[in-house]
Specification:
Layout lengths: L6 E8 L4 H13 L2 E8 L6 H16 L1 H4 L2 E8 L1 H6 L25 H16 L1 E5 L15 H15 L4 E3 L7 H23 L11 E2 L2 E2 L5 H15 L8
Parallel strand pairs: 1-2, 1-4, 2-3, 4-5
Antiparallel strand pairs: 6-7
Helix pairs in contact: 1-7, 2-7, 5-6, 7-8
The structure holds zinc ion (ZN).
Zinc ion binds next to α8.
């Protein structure tokens, strides 16, 4: 496979198949001529997200012809060795609880840092400058590696260490969960909202279960609760589009 020429008009989206990264995918497709996706297999118990990734990509291409032309390759990187180091409630069967730092046991230490280093190495090979991720510090679950300060520092480190000009773009950083639904509507209307409801996956327990108005999931893990509340608040406020 020939390496593409460097392009400032290409983006690599950190894509888990969840709600946030699905909105980021649409955001990038609206802005960049070529958009590739990367997912990470770190032994997470919501391996069902891996299936959701394929379905979201397929449905986006089917329902948005203007984006289908831009949607490029998907990459899945094996980070199970990292998953074994950062063992937590996400990757093992421990109950979800708080540790002494006030961080939930779902926190995988350094996860976003590692993801971005791998994504940057891949982007270097693919000739891509923009790394797009769904990190968010507004409703954030107490994850310090989702903070913009952390990502600014990492962006500097990546550019120094790889002699590149990467940009770590985080379109959801300042948005609340209801606003993230509003952004989805602005980008792709109710068609995109419905696609994300039906095909993206967020539940920590990896349950699909019945289809709720806000999507599939167990309905009572922290990820389902956050997703359900965000959707219900957005719906109750009139399903407004949030122009990015
Ligand atoms: Zn759940």
């Amino acid at each position: 496979m020939a390496e593409p020429a460097p392009s400032s008009d290409a983006a690599l989206v950190l894509f888990s198949g969840g709600q946030d990264s699905s909105v980021c995918l649409a955001w990038a497709l609206e802005r960049y001529a070529r958009v590739e996706t990367v997912g990470f297999d770190y032994g997470q118990r919501h391996a069902i997200e891996m299936t959701a990734r394929d379905e979201v990509r397929r449905q986006v291409a089917a329902r948005f012809p203007q984006w289908a032309r831009r949607l490029g390759e998907d990459h899945v990187l094996d980070l199970r060795g990292f998953g074994a180091v950062g063992e937590s409630a996400l990757t093992t069967d421990r109950a979800i609880e708080m540790d002494v730092r006030g961080l939930p046991s779902t926190f995988v230490p350094g996860r976003n840092l590692v993801f971005l280093i791998y994504a940057a190495a891949l982007a270097d090979r693919r000739g891509i400058d923009a790394l797009v991720g769904g990190m968010c510090e507004t409703d954030f679950s107490g994850y310090p590696d989702c903070r913009r300060d952390t990502l600014d520092a990492l962006q500097t480190a990546l550019n120094l260490g790889m002699a590149r000009d990467f940009r770590v773009e985080t379109p959801l950083m300042r948005l609340t969960k209801p606003q993230t639904w509003g952004l989805a509507k602005a980008l792709g209307g109710e068609v995109l909202v419905q696609l994300i409801v039906e095909d993206s996956h967020t539940c920590y327990r990896g349950e699909r279960g019945q289809l709720h108005p806000w999507g599939h999931g167990c309905g009572d893990c922290p990820a389902c609760e956050l997703r359900a509340k965000g959707y219900e608040d957005w719906d109750a406020a009139g399903r407004e589009a949030l122009v990015p």
